Amino acid sequence: MTRVLVVEDDPQLVRALKINLQARKFEVVEAGDGATALRLAAARTPDAILLDLGLPDMDGVEVIRGVRGRSHVPILVLSARHTSEEKIRALDAGADDYVTKPFSMDELLARLRAATRRREAPASPAGIPGIATDEFTIDLAARKVVRGERTVRLTPTEWHLLELLIARPGHLVSQRRLLLEVWGPAYSEHTNYLRVYMAQLRRKLEANPSHPRYLITEPGMGYRFEP
Ligand code: CA
C-alpha cells in the first residue's frame, strides 16, 4: 500500500483528500503543521508527500528543505499561491511537482501516481545507461543520440541540458536550475537562452518540434522530459 503524508492545515481539504486517497487504497498520514510534518516524514517514511505551502508554523519550503536533507521521497506541492516565484522556490528546494488550488481530485491523483512511479526510476544519470523512446534513443555512456537510423549531433550545451532533463524523467526542472547548471550564476535570469537551446533540441529530437512530445515547456516555470 502506498503511504501518503498529507501536510495541510485546512480541515475540509484534509477530509476531502483523505476520503479520495483512501478510496483508492492509499494509506493516509496527516500533519496539520510543518513541525508535525517533519517528524512524521522521518518516523513514518511515506512513499509520497502532499504539501501545502501556507502552514501555520512555518513556510512549506522549509519543510521541503528539511525533508530533502535526508530523503528523496516525492513531494507534490499544493499551492494556493499563484506567483510563479513561489512555485519555483518550492521546486528549487526539491519539490517534484505542484498542483494549484483549487485542483480536481483526478488531476491530483494523476500527478501523485506519476510522482510515485518516478520514484522507482533512478535519480542520477550515472544510474541510467540510456533512454529509449519511440522517436530516439540516448546512450549516456557513449554520449550518443540515435534517431531512426542516424546519429544526431548535439553541441556540448545541448547535451548538458538534455542530461539534466532526462536525469529525472517526468520531473519539472526549473528555468533557474537549468541556467545555473549549464551557464552559471551570472546567467540565472537569461531565460531566452533556454528558449533558443530547447528549440534546437526539439528540432533535432522531436517529430513535430512545435508540438513537442518529449521536451515539454511549463510556461514561466521550467521544462520536463516526458518519457
Ligand atoms: Ca494553508
Please write out the topology:
Layout: E1 3-7, H1 11-23, E2 27-31, H2 34-43, E3 48-52, H3 60-68, E4 75-79, H4 84-93, E5 97-100, H5 105-119, E6 130-132, E7 137-139, E8 144-147, E9 150-152, H6 156-166, E10 173-174, H7 175-182, H8 191-205, E11 215-218, E12 222-225
The protein binds calcium ion (CA).
The site of calcium ion has 5 residues, from loops.
Can you tag this structure with a few keywords?
single chain; 227 residues; alpha/beta; Rossmann fold; Arc Repressor Mutant, subunit A; 2 domains; five-stranded parallel beta sheet; four-stranded antiparallel beta sheet; 8 helices; 12 strands; binds calcium ion
Q: Could you tell me the number of beta strands?
A: 12
State the end-to-end CA separation. Answer: 25 Å
Count of distinct structural domains: 2
Small molecules bound: calcium ion
The coarse silhouette is elongated
Instruction: State the CATH architecture of the largest domain.
Output: 3-Layer(aba) Sandwich
Instruction: Characterize the main sheet.
Output: 5 strands, parallel
Low-confidence stretches: 122-126
CATH class of the largest domain: Alpha Beta
Helix segment tally? 8
Q: Structural class, from helix and strand content? A: alpha/beta
